[in-house]
Amino acid sequence: MDAPKNVKAEEVAGAVSLIFTNSISPVQFSLLLWALHVTAGDHDSGVLSHCARAMREAAAQVDEIALTEVVKRRGQTEGNYQGGLVSRSIEEATFNLSLADIDDQ
Question: Is this structure's pTM higher than 0.85?
Fold first, then answer.
């Protein structure tokens, strides 16, 4: 097994991405998170950006045009919600962080 300092951010992201394909158990994933924490990998910007990319790639892809049309057609609002879409922005008490613009390190 490689020493923690020799593991590349891409390799960590590859391991993290296995959770999205149900290829590792919750215990294995917990151990990965623990190892990242004790080696400070969970604070490494390169690791975080590569993991974020892996999560975005594993996420369901949404047809934004079709979704916008459905929201407009339904025209139902609740509370302060006005029927629009929220993405990559700071909204009241919610903070969405996008690492898409962070360069690979």
Answer: no
